[in-house]
Amino acid sequence: MVDRNLIREFQVDDAELDAALGGELGEWLIEEDEKMDRIYDKTSSPFDVNEIVHGKVLSVEGDEVLVDIGYKSEGMVPLYEWAEDEDKPNVGDTIEVLLEEIEDDFGLVLLSKRKADRQKDWDWVVSRYSEGDTIIGMVVRKIKGGLLVNIGETLSATGARGVNVFLPASQVDIRRPQDIGEFVGNEIECMILKVDDARKNIVVSRRRLIEEQRAEMKRKLLAEIEDGQIRKGVVKNIADFGAFVDLGGIDGLLHITDMSWGRINHPTEMVQIDDEIEVMILNVDREKEKIALGLKQKFPSPWENVETKYPVGSRVNGEVVNVMTYGAFVKLEDGIEGLVHISEMSWTKRLNHPNEMVSIGQEVEVVVLGINTDKQEISLGMKQTQPNPWDNVTEKYPEGKSVNGVVRNLTNYGAFIELEEGVDGLLHVSDMSWTRKISHASEMLKKGDEIECIVVSVDEERKRIALGLKQMSDDPWEARIPDQYQPGSIVKGSVTKITNFGVFVELEEELEGLLHVSEVTGGDEEKTVEDVVKVGDEIEVKILRVDTGDRKIGLSMKLDAEIEPEEGTASATAGEPGTKELKGGMGDSSGPLFSLKSAQEEEAAEQSSEEESSTPEE
């Protein structure tokens, strides 16, 4: 019989063979060949593709292993299909291989030992495990989207044997680790999520297994945990406000305020991730499954007997640990801090911020001012360690004493005069001049001026000193002004201001008198004040009345006006509703002739006077 497969191997086609052997002989040979094939097929055992069969190693030559599986042709298996940790094949060994193809183009049988091993491993896995079962595997390597895990009868770190399954990155742990590659080379326990027999794919989850285990542990833990217990746990996560500690099935919160009796800026100063620590159970909320933990509660509170250790009034040394806009916190010992308010830092310095006096880390001496044990607060003072410049201030600045000072600040109600460092006095606008109307202290003074004043009054308890500038000279209203401006005398003056109720006339520097509207227009209702005088005009006026009590002078442009005798010490305010009719700038009531008002008051007076009218008396 002619072996056509052998002839084909030497690349001799049927046409050339027929030509060489002759047509009839060729046909006979073909017919005989087909008969022999049928006989061989009947006598040989049936082989199915993708079936695992047993074979005998005939030879090992180079990188090829010749294997006889009992078929009409032998098969070749590459030597590299034997893993590094496996024994290499020897002639005569019986091995299992997968029949990939019965006869290829060259008439050879295609075999694979590696695929046979994988099929056996796959059959072993699916025969023992199904979806939802737990299995142990070896992490082979990190791949896109997760990890490759080897499972099977024998685990392989290289993945050469067993079944390589997929562990998604999201299923590696409850909290996704920063680098899942750290699991490579380790054995892990997983739960089978999905088995695809057709594609021979398996997806597993370590997270699902941990969650189910933790759920059972949580149930047991919540059933036995109580407030006040000491438990061990592992730090799993750290935030700015505290750390989460795994107690075994459930996480508890260890707040930063419960870590130490002393001050800490961040939880990492006390604990690190994966630290195993002992904590006290502070509170258990079984409905919300929340547990509050404490570290400092395992030790006695330093606030016990704090009033004995730091009695009020005692002097102690401490370290500045924090500086805020309102003051500085001073540590007296670990766990005990007191606040020095900005107002308690200096008797003399005017501080805009505490850092002008102290800085973090500085050692300072303080006095204990007060203790609140309920709120665990201590009030401290720094200035109390120095003499108070207000002590005996009455003796240093008695009433009536002439003092020198520097203008430190100006307001609409007065000026603050620094008499010495830490001691200020107030010079009110009403005590700046006997005669001048002052609406703001800046009209008389400016910052930095050195002035001499008289001490008017001292309130040592309230730390206030009243000063006077006008008291440096005699009151001109007591003698000079009444003598110089006798009623009936005619004087010259300059118009400084026009209002709807009259005209202010400056008689001398800082001294004004009032011309009532009736004393300007002469009772002519068709005329207005502006028709007669303007600001800056120099006019002659007659003194109608000098009111020393209210320090006002009534004037008239009617130089021939008669002077009426005074009835009382003060005349009615010009244009004031409800008063009797004014006559020649003098009323017959005892009210004031006019008042030196603020700008707002004058505007209100002007509005109200528009509704009033007065008839001058000839």
Automatic annotation (TrEMBL):
GO terms for molecular function: mRNA binding; structural constituent of ribosome. GO terms for biological process: translation. Keywords: Repeat, Ribonucleoprotein, Ribosomal protein, RNA-binding. Residues 564-618 are annotated as: Disordered. GO terms for cellular component: cytosolic small ribosomal subunit. Residues 601-618 have a biased composition (Acidic residues). Residues 50-114, 132-207, 228-296, 313-383, 400-470, 488-558 form the S1 motif domain. PANTHER family: 30S RIBOSOMAL PROTEIN S1 (PTHR10724), SMALL RIBOSOMAL SUBUNIT PROTEIN BS1C (PTHR10724:SF7). Belongs to the bacterial ribosomal protein bS1 family. This is Small ribosomal subunit protein bS1. It comes from Thalassoglobus neptunius.
